[in-house]
Amino acid sequence: MATTHITLLHSNDMHGAFLPKDEGGVASGGLSLLSGYIRKARNEQPNTAYIIAGDMFRGSVIDSEYLGLSTIDLVNILDPDVATLGNHEVDYGLAHLLFLEKCARFPIINADLYITLNNARLFQPYANLTVGGLRILCIGILTQEVLSSTKSEAVIGTFVDIKEAAREIGVICDNYRTTDTDLTVLVTHIGIDKDRELAGLLNPDWGVDFIIGGHSHTFMDAPEIVNGVPIVQAGFGTGQIGRFEIDYDSDRRELLGYTWESVPVNAGTAEIDPIMEQTLETYRSSTDKKYRRVVTRLARKLTHPRREQETELGNLYADMLQDESSYDIMLFGSGSIRKTELGPVVEYRDMVESTPFDGPVYMLKVTGGQFRRIVCHLMRDEAWEGGTEFYQFSRGVRIVWRKATRTLEELSFNGESVCDEDELLIALQDYHYRNFDEFLGVPLEEVKRNMRPRMVITSINNIVEEYFTTHPGLDARVEGRITVLD
Length: 486
Known about the structure:
Blueprint: E1 3-11, E2 21-23, E3 26-28, H1 31-44, E4 48-53, H2 61-65, H3 69-78, E5 82-84, H4 94-103, E6 108-109, E7 113-115, E8 120-121, E9 126-131, E10 134-142, H5 146-149, E11 156-158, H6 162-176, E12 183-189, H7 192-201, E13 210-212, E14 224-226, E15 229-232, E16 240-249, E17 254-264, H8 274-291, E18 294-297, E19 302-303, H9 312-322, E20 329-333, E21 341-342, E22 345-347, H10 348-354, E23 361-367, H11 368-378, E24 391-393, E25 397-402, E26 407-413, E27 416-417, E28 423-429, H12 430-434, H13 436-440, H14 444-448, E29 454-457, H15 460-470, E30 482-485
Parallel strand pairs: 1-4, 4-5, 5-6, 10-12, 12-13, 13-15, 20-28, 25-30
Antiparallel strand pairs: 1-16, 2-3, 7-8, 7-11, 9-10, 14-15, 16-17, 18-22, 19-21, 20-24, 23-28, 23-29, 25-26, 26-27
């Protein structure tokens, strides 16, 4: 028996986590340490491949200042063997993404983005890697949320049904999985719940061996096995990396076994890559001139530990955008807040990195009955998996949801129960307005009959910066606006 041993490393949802964090006096994460870890692994085990499962972009001023070009430059130094698209890869537009792809020195794969006029794929759907003599077929699958960011680009489509994506995998495996293929890996960016659904739909004859995923920011202690297929994900950021150790019988052409772990990337597990550090410093020194100015000082450090709950930072942003406005309630997207903590000193860099998705805000009128339907939709079971939109509500709102019975036990505004015949003016960011039906569960056309929606803010960060500047010492608390029982 000829046994071949290979190592597969993988990251996902790096979101511009380029710089290290101090965790108990130990440097953790950052591209310099991540690059150092990858180089160390490759030196120790030459039969090593590195895979990125989407969302390299957003979250850092280094990324946004250069519209992702800096990110591609830095990821080129990481030297991944393959990367799949994430939903944030399209944030700067499809045309710009196609330009960035030309700057990448690694293949970017995606099987389900296509041009609606002729069904031509935008990207190579797969890549064949050769690692330690083994031929690995990697297929890229992107979340349906890409449509949320490309609503204005009518010529672009994707498979919005996971069953369609599964069928497409079958097509690719039938056409491109050859007798030379030893392992087949799905590199997805659809979230852990959709990964489970996808794995359940896979035909065993297609020969899919692993799913390496992203999007839901799921930290795992061990692979999750569905339909015989191991599913893994490495949380988010650069503070950890997934690692497979795989043994393969090259004579019998079969997988003998594997182990997987999520490895912390810190000063104890890796050394700084000097080339990455030098390149990163060039970008950092350039952006520091523009972004290292103090905007405000908060009363204390405020936090946003999870999207799927009321948070201090969430309350702060929702209240800032509702204060002295023409609407009653601001619904601020939890995923729009990219920092887990902010302050007490807030520099312009911190402000922009915390709310990088700048844009308009729209005001709409909803009935109390429609608002109740919206809240029930937001609290559905999928919300707790991290794969759906969740919102932070401005002051005056109180929601009590019982998870076990899926019951909305209280919905009130300014101390009064919300009745079906009530009318409320709510506000949403442009991204959420454009995806109203999907994100809020009520048809936008139905809501438009109450009142024609109106743009009331052209730039969120214009409001945030002015409010920060004129209101020093801001504070916010979790106060029971959203209470989830059971």
